[in-house]
Give the backbone structure.
Amino acid sequence: MKKLLILLAIVLALGLVACAPKEEDEKFELALITDVGTIDDKSFNQGAWEGLKQYAEEKGISYKYYQPTDKSTDAYVAAIDLAVENGAKVIVTPGFLFEPAIFKAQDIYKEVKFVLLDGFPQDGTYTQFRIENNVYSIFYAEEQVGFLAGYAAVKDGYTNLGFMGGMAVPAVVRFGYGFVQGVNYAAAEMGINVNLKYKYLGGFGPSAEYQTEAATWFQGGVQVIFAAAGGAGNSVMAAAEANNGKVIGVDIDQKGESTTVITSALKGLGVSVYDALTDYYAGTFKGGQSVSLGVEVDGVSLPNDFSRFTTFNKAMYDAIFAKLVANTDNIRTNIKKDTDVTSASELPVTNVTVEVIG
Amino acid sequence: MTLSTFYFLVQQTMFFSIPLLIVAIGGMYSERSGVINIALEGIMIIGAFVSLFFMNRMQASMTGQTLLVLSMLIAATVGMMLSFFHAYASINMKANQVISGTALNLFAPAFAIFTARMIIGVQQVTFANTYRIAEVPILSSIPVLGDLFFKNTYITTFAGFAILIIATFVLYKTRFGLRLRACGEHPQAADAAGVNVKRMRYTGVLISGALAGLGGLVLMVPVTTAFDGSVGGYGFLALAVLIFGQWRPGRILFAAFFFGLMKTISAAYTGIPILLALGIPSYVFKMIPYLATIIILTFTSKKSAAPKAAGEPYDAGKR
């Protein structure tokens, strides 16, 4: 009986394979490969995907996304192989985890263009950095939008603030440093002293621990927390709802996720992918370049809705935004980044007491 | 430490302890009937997922405690349905109970994410929390106790205590409880005395499924605004609570609160000046529950109160 069943299973399996539709002829010109997240992570992958999709649909170009089998350079390279095999001409890879994979792939597939978001090709050990002219590396000036968020919060009257990052990865660190400096800038402008708690949670998913941590901060007098922590931000929002606190969202406009979200630090992921593709089809692909997109090219911004602020408004936002764009008194270039100092406590501040919690 | 900080800590501890308590009691019912259920984690995920999805769909038309109670019922039902598979594999098919449980643990998060993305389009199931009770009328004005238990709370907290009391009563004071325990200790003897071992074990596993599913919902509601297909290992932690609590309701209560308190302290110590002044890294607090479990296990392994027949498929021919 058992043998019969096994035989039956094999026959069925073979039958299924034989019936599987053949897709050899179908080609996809534009490809996106996801990193650890999914295409709908409300963050990096989703932002990039929306840009690619928009361009492809407007121009009638075939497109497809690939999800690597696991989180490793080998799996990423395998996904790139697959994409190329399926006829990809441009491959978008969101996230710094792709750095080693692109480092390899840029030599293997010289005719394919790569758009690497938030990363620069390196050999995996950060000893060898090299970018070929089929790779366009895009960074975002998270420190600038963090600056804007911090500035807005203090201008709105908050004097006791917090920063909760997911993990101390470069993008999150830039958000945090920018936030501290924006808070300081506004406080100096207003001639007041403010307090700021600073911490990396250690994860990007919602959890009871993060809720308690945020609740403790709110209980201890913190009025608003900038949560640059993906899904862990939802736990910060839960804590804010129960403890009368406020939250600043990250990456995309998160005001729909909780009424406590006063604003969000946005990155123009979709726009930058869209622009890169436009360049490619216009024959001006910026291969071999690494850029950091900031306020001057709308790479980062706050959402255009100031209804949840009490005193901070669009005019004030436009003023500080214009100052950053014009780099008045070197305001923009003076913002310290992740590579400038090793800890938030070393940031040069005058009007804010930073308490870094380890 | 001011009094209000203390109250705050106790209120926060509930968010950790109550789900652990509910799930561990579920695990207790399964194991005392003779079936090890390590699928608690997976069942929590499915219970939380389905009930929060229900909440997500229904919150436009209804809010407040009615919706929460309905969701709790759904979570328990779904948990029970999932645990049926474990029961069938380990009781009827006499499969290895650890493997069957692991299968459910692997299946659950994948199913939650897959289904969410098929139906909603995104992986996260968002929900609005309209269930927090800022103050229970009258009861909250009781000195001390009012602040501890009747402020900033959820009906799930009271449900947790109710489950504990009912579970204890059923296990020790009813005929059913006696038979269930007999099946976990010596099923052949129970069978000889006329107890239907299969039915007892099915009941035990299904109760554990219902409570685990409920525990998943109870864990997620107060602590986030979006469910992401994970309960962060609390199902496994509940197993540790069960072992730490030596399969007895009273001790499980103590264990759940001990674990919950340690979790709370590790997350909240930055707000407690006394603890902050000690300069102990938060990792130490995070380790304490696990260290304590290992120590307790080491010292009690000789006279462990684990049900003797737990993990063994019932074989009527064996004596």
